[in-house]
Amino acid sequence: MPLSLYDTLSREILPVRPMDGETLRFYCCGPTVYGPAHIGNFRTFVMQDVFRRVVEAGGMATRHVRNLTDVDDKTIRRSQEEGRSLAEFTAAWTVRFHADCAALGILPPHVEPSAVAHLPEQIALIERLIEKGHAYRAHDGSVYYDVRSFPGYGKLSRLAEREITTDAPEREQADEYDRHSAADFALWKAARPEDGPNRWPSPWGEGRPGWHIECSAMAMKHLGESFDLHSGGVDLVFPHHENEIAQSEAATGRPFARHWFHVAHLTVEGRKMSKSLGNLHILEDLAARGHRPMELRYVLISGCYRQPLNFTFASLAAARKALARLADWQRRLGGPPDFLLPGEEDFGPFGPVYDALLSDLNTPEALGRLHRIGREVVAAAEGGTLPPQEFETARHGLALVLQCLGLDLSETDTTAPPAPEAPAWVQALAAERLDARRRRDWDEADRLRDQIKEAGWLVRDAPDTSTLEPLGPPIAT
Ligand SMILES: [Zn+2]
After folding, report:
1. CA angle at 32 for the pair 28 and 34, rounded to the nearest 5°
2. Same domain membership, residue 339 and residue 198
3. Measured CA angle at 304 (ends 316, 340), to 5 deg
4. pLDDT digit string (tens) for 76-114?
5. Are strands 135-137 and 143-145 parallel, antiparallel or unpaired?
6. Sign of CA dihedral 87, 89, 90, 93
7. What angle do CA 14, 17, 20 make, to 5 degrees?
8. How many domains does the chain have?
């Protein structure tokens, strides 16, 4: 049975099958290497990793391409602020990204193309678009894509023309004054003084590529003009992926990616992730608070990829307990087998866990089943009701589903998890409530208690003080 997965383009759950019948070829938009990736970025990379592992566990070969965005406004600006060359600056953040991925058990892609290393392909693609009348050169030497020349524009995001023309202001530069239409986007950006040495020759003068053309060119170079699946965070649907489709399909006249897989947002303690709220957590922060990367991975797969997921420190603590329980069961079943046969499909009693993953990558259901079946199998094994040959199958099946989920139990922490601390804004509400109680303003105190509860915390009152406890286990344990 192939994996079935929601496709953003058709709005349907469709089987994921390789068009060549052999190798599933897919492209994931990679990181912009100008700083550490945060836990919201990693939600997408971890879910893409589970996707790949599930496909491979079914015996299917994959070709996984994930790029590095190593030239754009942010990489250029930051490298200059630090007085380093763009190459040196992005190389350092690439090393860091690889280390974080390894800690989270994310398999390295088969090909990791760099945008700077693919300038000839990007220039060739832009030339092709100009020849076919889909792009035009502006007075300053920039080249724009003519959105009105591609009738399929908007088919992925299904935006009306009115919405499309509002554009994404942070992605595009204000200096694009001679665009024919507000929706037209830059394929090539003419060099500006502030770019410093970060300029490359082109038939239109010195400059650098736009972000969207980078991905189209790298995807087609390494996967062909048409390939099986394209993936990224849901924030990339528009304009990035819409623009990738427009560029690629206008140039080749062929469908670009057949299936589009997008991962929803992560919120932190009930709030949107943002720099101003100081909640763009990175692996380093979590380690400083005593948490392990595998605990984060567990939390990131604990929600359905199509729904926003709320990250909390209480869920990290619950993840540690869940991982410790799984490690204990694995030990009681004789430990992991010495080797796993690739493509082997005998999940034994853990088959329903794999089935949940095949059904639109339902990781929360898979984790729920894993705990339920694990408990039953261990009880049967220790109660003497599991036949010896099934013991071996169970041991093997457990290892296989853990491999699909990418949960490495070899370094599971069995110590008590750090007590989750309420975020500062919830603590401030609790302090406000304490004041209300001291004033005997019970209505206000009740109102604040409800507000705190909505944020996922329970207030416990003591004489002249109060403490905060996280509400309920937030994830399957
Ligand atoms: Zn991309």
Report:
1. 160
2. no
3. 80
4. 999 999 999 999 999 999 999 999 999 999 999 999 999
5. antiparallel
6. positive
7. 145
8. 3
Query: Has residue 458 been placed in a domain?
Result: yes
Beta bridge partners of 185: 145
Give the Å distance between the CA of 25 and the centre of ligand 1: 15
Residue ranges in 1-140 assigned as alpha helix (H): 39-57, 73-81, 86-103, 119-131
Encode pLDDT of 133-152 as tens digits. 999 999 999 999 999 999 99
Length, in residues, of the chain: 477
Helix, strand or coil for residue 393?
Answer: helix
Q: How many A from CA of 213 to the centre of ligand 1?
A: 8
Residue 287 CA to ligand 1 centre (angstroms): 29
In a domain, 277, yes or no: no
Same domain, 360 and 433: no
* 223 domain residue, yes or no: yes
Residue 477 belongs to some domain of the structure: no
Same domain, 437 and 400: no
DSSP E strand boundaries for 234-332 = 257-263, 266-268, 271-272, 309-311
Beta strand 266-268 with 309-311 is parallel
CA dist., res. 435 & res. 429, Å (int) = 10
Distance 210 CA to ligand 1 centre (A): 11
Q: How far is the CA of 198 from the centre of ligand 1 (A)?
A: 21
Task: Write the CB contacts of 124 (distance below 8 Å, at least 6 apart in sequence).
Answer: 217
Question: Which structural domain range is residue 434 located in?
Answer: 424-470
pTM, full prediction: 0.91
Question: For residue 139, how far is the Cα from the chain centroid?
Answer: 38
* Helices 388-405, 363-382: crossing angle, 10 deg rounding: 160
List, for residues 34-45, the tens digit of each pLDDT value. Answer: 999 999 999 999
Residues 60 and 200 in one domain: yes
